[in-house]
Amino acid sequence: MNVPPVPDPAAGGEAEGATGPAPAQPPARLLPSPRYSGPIPWVIAILIALVVIAAAGGLALRNLANSAQADLSAALTVQVVEPNPDLRLARGEAAVRVLTALEGVQSVRLVPEAELAALL
């Protein structure tokens, strides 16, 4: 008498020697699966943060330079070099008169010696 094999539940439901469909295989991948573990994502995140900080610093520096250029482009300083204080004051006042007479000059100010000393 010929008896068919009995399925073994411990072996996965099929008896040894039974033929059936082959187990399904995952599809072939063209690219390797991405790895999101290890230090690489953290290194990339830190580098991106540093690039953003550097770009922000560059933009802030450019804005500061543009502001300083705009402030300084409309100003002119004239220095009267004279060792004698009396002559220095007279020549400074003469320079103020000459500069005030020029077209396009909005304001002229003679800086006192005390303010110059405080600036230095």
Structure keywords:
mainly alpha; 120 residues; 0% strand; 3 helices
Largest sheet composition: none
Radius of gyration: 43 Å
Coarse structural class:
mainly alpha
Helix content: 40-55%
Q: Order of helices and strands, N to C? A: HHH
Could you tell me the mean pLDDT?
80
Number of helices in the DSSP assignment: 3
SS strand fraction: under 5%
Compute the number of strand runs: 0
Brief summary of the model shown:
The protein is an all-alpha fold. Among the domains are: 36 residues; 36 residues, no CATH class.
Give structural notes.
This protein is mostly helical and 120 residues long. Among the domains are: 40-75; 76-111, no CATH class. The chain contains 3 helices and no strands. The protein has helices spanning 40-73, 85-101, 113-119. The mean pLDDT is 80.
